[in-house]
Amino acid sequence: MITSRAVVALLLHHYRRVVVQRAVNYDFAGALTDLICDAITMAAANVEIAPGAVFHSDRGTQYTSAQFAAHLSKHNMAGSMGRTGICWDNAMAESFFAALKNELIYRTAFPTQETARRAIADYIEVFYNRIRLHSGLGYRTPQEVATEYYKKQLIAA
Fold first, then answer.
1. pLDDT tens digit at each of 157 positions of the chain
2. If you count Cβ atoms within 10 Å of the first and of the last residue's Cβ in the chain, which end, N or C, has fewer?
3. Domain boundaries along the sequence of the chain
4. Fold of 7-99+109-156
5. Cα-atom radius of gyration of the chain, to the nearest Å?
6. Which of 3, 5, 14 is nearest to 146 (CA)?
């Protein structure tokens, strides 16, 4: 059984409540900023990020670094963070991590880091994005919301 902790960086689409991209690392003392920047780079390669898209985060040092600001600028994104002590600003990400821990992490003993990495990927890609109902989406899945959105875009075009 693994004893190290995984560090998960992810990008959530605010409207659809879908995890757009994730990056996982087991080096907690390592460069968290690099991990987050990697997730942004992978997201930009996989989905269209609207110019001026807002990346909202807590006030962790990885999000206040010059490296992170430069990376957001490179991808034409704007950074946003709440005031100190205001936890509601990042509630969507906090809610996701609570669900991940309660629905997967605390219920599973992972024999290897690779097993944990695969389980987290499956939870996000298969369960969270496609099957799990979200109260913030009217008890629909992110996939249903995306399909509805794209249908409306086609009708409007």
1. 555 677 888 888 888 888 888 888 876 655 788 889 999 999 999 888 889 998 888 888 888 899 999 999 999 999 888 777 776 667 888 889 999 999 999 999 999 989 999 999 999 999 999 999 999 899 999 999 989 988 998 898 7
2. C
3. 7-99+109-156
4. Nucleotidyltransferase; domain 5 (3.30.420)
5. 16
6. 14
